[in-house]
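User: Fold this; tokens only.

Assistant: Input:
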Amino acid sequence: MLRWLLTWGVFAFISLSCVASDTNSVLRTEANKQVALRMIGHQLLLSVGDSTSRVLPVRTEGNTHILSFENAFSFQPDTVSAIINSLIESTGLASNYIVQFVTCDSNQIVHSYKVSSIEEESVPACMGRSQPKACYYLKIIDLDRPDSASVVSAETTAAPLETEDFSSITKVWLLLTLFIMLLASLLIYFFSSKPKSSAKIESIQIGKYRFNPKTMELILGNEKIELTSKECDLLQLLYESVNDTVDRDTILRMVWNDEGDYVGRTLDVFISKLRKKLEADSRIKIANIRGVGYKLIIDV
């Protein structure tokens, strides 16, 4: 049972780490794309002589990135195309893509071209025709990325993630829940398996002695021999397994209760004290089972 719990606990922890790493990788990739897109918008405005107006929040609709601008501007197609292509290539934003400049009011495409890793599939931009000053927005269609209806806004940390991100996060939470359940099971196992001190009874006959755990005394005829609390617990534990070996770990856990005050040969010293107090009856022996523990032997 314990081995099973430990195995699954390790498995859950490793799986959780791997999925969390994958999720972080996805989020970092999306964040890097947004940085690249805003860089494109910034450089585009600089190329048209605008260094003060803002690039508005970037939107992503499926495989299409949309950059909007605060102010109207005019542009030279060959200049802006060179800037856009250079930044897309240097940032690794896409390998196959379409670029479109669209008017804000009529949604008409005034400038467009296609770049493909297969040279013959590329459609070059129309160069040399300056576009008049107007409100434009820029669309970059990533042909390497599957189209979908998901909309992601990276301008706010509260923005919804794409389906693949939700899937990864769901896996993280499921594995985290599993790991917590396994950890709880381990704790329950350890606490429930920890031996509990037996209820102390009034009197026990051990050979010629009467042993009273309540008063912590050994009685031999009219003589009363006092026991310390540890001696009392140790003797009772050995008696409960009379003629059977009790291993050292069990003795330390039951008698010293993991208090940390067991040092060196303390257990051996207590055994010696008990032997001394029981020496009046030769039928009683506390045998040292080397490398294992101790055994209380009572000859009939």
